[in-house]
Specification:
Blueprint: H1 9-25, E1 30-33, H2 36-43, E2 55-59, E3 64-69, H3 73-79, E4 84-88, H4 94-104, E5 110-114, H5 123-132, E6 136-140, H6 144-149, H7 154-177, H8 184-197, E7 208-211, E8 232-241, E9 244-254, H9 261-278, H10 285-298, E10 310-312, E11 343-350, E12 359-368, E13 371-374, E14 383-385
Parallel strand pairs: 1-5, 3-4, 5-6, 9-14
Antiparallel strand pairs: 1-2, 2-3, 7-8, 8-9, 9-12, 10-11, 11-12, 12-13
């Protein structure tokens, strides 16, 4: 297998077969797949060109055509062998190109599955298809291919474990670099260097590096600011190997941690252990969250709630590592059934509880046949750097 090809043909054939079976069950004549993670999953295209319109058309018989900018031909031909390339010039109307491709594949009528909930499918495309092909029925298949991706194959898990090793190297660099007087940019630079030298590639987003003034501002990252004694430094990173991610986060204290941090650390880590103990094939996401919340409640923090205690990860392209346009989380109201091979970014997060001593820890973990195994191995204990 070529180094540029991440999976053997037979694995792609198995994935396509699952989609064909699902299409037959739903009486679909074809599908138009637009999410980068799903395009990659089905045909292997990995590049940074997904900012422009892409569409992978799949017929019930398994024939595939990939629509992308004409300038991507060389990349597509190097990485994709299972789909015919259809290129469009920057001045072309992508609606016209898509409609012509559908007609050529004899999908001008019948039922066509489209990922209406995916951010990478502009409404103009679906509206244009409906206008130009009035005999076609557009059926929402949002989440269909995403569901196939939830449980990972052996090769996918091997890439995820490699990504976890990259993640550990990134966090080690942050811990070694951070300290009083060190600029947040220096920490970010060290993390990026470690990521590349450890064998990682660009992640779906992040790394996230932020300190006390911006600590509560989700999804912001490093500023031009020197760390001060007593600061909390939030570091959340994900190594990425062949588009598979293994996120991890730590809250690092600069110089000293405030009183009460040790007590909060104990609760946070015990709650994390409750998460991993609750995870097993057949468990429901809401019960996993409930195990975390029960330990938090027992600590006298029943008023404190999180929107989840983890979420599915795997394939990811910018702008995120969550694997698509929605977050599939371990929420209090989720009936998601866990399966062997699922990979989660698990987190125990006690910040802004009303008590002193914020604490946060997160790790990538895989659901195994009899439980759960943590993939990232950086110690979870309190980190104070000087």
């Amino acid at each position: 297998m070529s180094e540029s090809l991440y999976f053997p043909p037979e694995e792609f054939e198995q994935r396509l077969g699952r989609l064909q079976t699902a299409m037959a069950e739903r009486a679909l004549d074809g599908c138009l797949i637009s999410g980068p993670e799903n395009v990659f999953y089905l045909c292997g295209l990995s590049h940074q060109g997904f900012f422009a319109y892409h569409a992978l058309i799949v017929t019930r018989e398994g024939e595939m055509a990939l629509i992308a900018r004409a300038m991507e031909r060389v990349t597509v031909e190097a990485l994709v062998s299972s789909a015919r390339f259809i290129g469009y010039a920057d001045g072309d109307d992508p609606v016209r190109v898509t409609v012509e491709a559908l007609r050529e594949l004899e999908l001008g009528t019948g039922r066509l599955g489209v990922e209406k909930g995916n951010l990478f499918l502009p409404p103009r495309i679906t509206e244009g298809i409906a206008f130009c092909l009035p005999q076609i029925e557009l059926v929402d298949v949002t989440g269909l291919v995403d569901g196939f991706r939830q449980a990972k194959s052996a090769r996918e898990l091997a890439y995820t474990r490699q990504a976890a090793a990259v993640t550990d190297a990134m966090m080690a660099a942050a811990l070694e670099t951070a300290g009083p007087g060190v600029n947040e940019r220096e920490v970010a630079a060290a993390v990026h260097e470690a990521m590349i030298l450890a064998g990682g590639t660009y992640p779906g987003f992040g790394p996230f590096v932020r300190s006390t003034p911006t600590l509560g501002q989700e999804h912001r990252t490093w500023q031009d600011r020197a760390l001060q004694p007593g600061d909390a430094l939030f570091v959340e990173v994900a190594g990425c190997v062949r588009r598979y991610h293994a996120p991890m986060g730590r809250l690092i204290y600069i110089g000293e941690a405030p009183p009460g941090t040790g007590e909060m650390e104990k609760v946070c880590l015990e709650a994390f252990a409750c998460i991993t103990n609750a995870i097993r094939p057949g468990a429901l996401a809401r019960d996993v969250y409930g195990a975390w919340q029960a330990r938090v409640d027992a600590a006298g923090l029943a008023h404190y709630r999180r929107h989840h205690c983890g979420y599915l990860v795997g394939i990811g392209f910018p702008p995120s590592w969550v694997g698509g346009s929605t977050v599939v989380g371990l929420r209090h109201d989720s009936d998601l059934e866990l399966r062997e091979g699922m990979v989660f970014h698990l987190m125990s997060w006690l910040m802004g509880t009303g008590r002193n001593g914020d604490y946060f820890v997160s790790d990538a973990a895989v659901v195994t046949a009899d439980g759960c195994t943590r993939l990232t191995t950086t110690p979870q204990h309190l980190h104070v750097v000087h």
